[in-house]
Amino acid sequence: MLVKPTVATIVQQDVLMFLKEQPSESVDLIVTDPAYSGMNQHLLLGHGRIVGKYQEKGEGRWFEEFHDTPENYSQFLSECRRVLKQDRHLFLMFDSFSLLSLGAMVRDFFNVKNVVTWDKVNIGMGHYFRRQTEFILFASKGKRPVTRRDIPDIWKIKRLHRAQYPTQKPVELFEAMIASSKEKENDDFVVCDPFVGSGSSAVAALRQGASFIGCDISDKAVSLSRSRVEGYLQRGIDIGQEKPAFDEAMQKKFW
Ligand SMILES: C[S@@+](CC[C@H](N)C(=O)[O-])C[C@H]1O[C@@H](n2cnc3c(N)ncnc32)[C@H](O)[C@@H]1O
To answer: With 82 labelled, which of 44, 64, 105, 141 sits at a CA distance of 20 to 30 A?
Structure first.
């Protein structure tokens, strides 16, 4: 399905099919948090403990995985490059396992500028040192400055408790990415997230005055993200996140 950006368009589709149907050089920014299979396969093979319902088969699983073989991942990156306009940015999220196994491939398609550390403030699961961080690879296609020069590469944004969707990220995390790439006055800016999940990136785009296109393979994700967008557009509220996740000092750095 060819997606024409209006305000926010979210479709249920596989990431590669979705990207292949988008016109070349049609989006201004890609922010995305892929479903990596590497970490979970590593845990299954090792002595790790799979968290939650992950071990269940079929419907009980958290969500479908994108099979991040080097072939699939390079197709994904190549499509991201084609769809992104010249002189634009990409923010790509990684867990520590995938950053080491797949992160270097991003250099074959984009100019990698930084690895931003998302500091979730509170510790989570972990077999040795408990995890408090995830990583965001910041890269460009061509040249483009960030909107401010005083933003550090560690972003302190609280993880969500009682989230409505597995791996749901705070809206503020995506807002930080968008605000550092989009000039405030630009109202013709299209953000794309082809692993949209709960829709946090879509709400972030709207809050930052951008249009949004995205997809997810899961019907639950598509229905939740569409409801969040609708709630935001009609009533100005986000039904997916009760409390803000930024601390005040961090917020001042971005806005
Ligand atoms: C890490 S989650 C994204 C979470 C999202 N950032 C949020 O804040 O809610 C990854 C998403 O990728 C989706 N997914 C998995 N395989 C996919 C595929 N082949 N095509 C598109 N989406 C896929 C999953 O359904 C899941 O919602």
So the answer is: 64
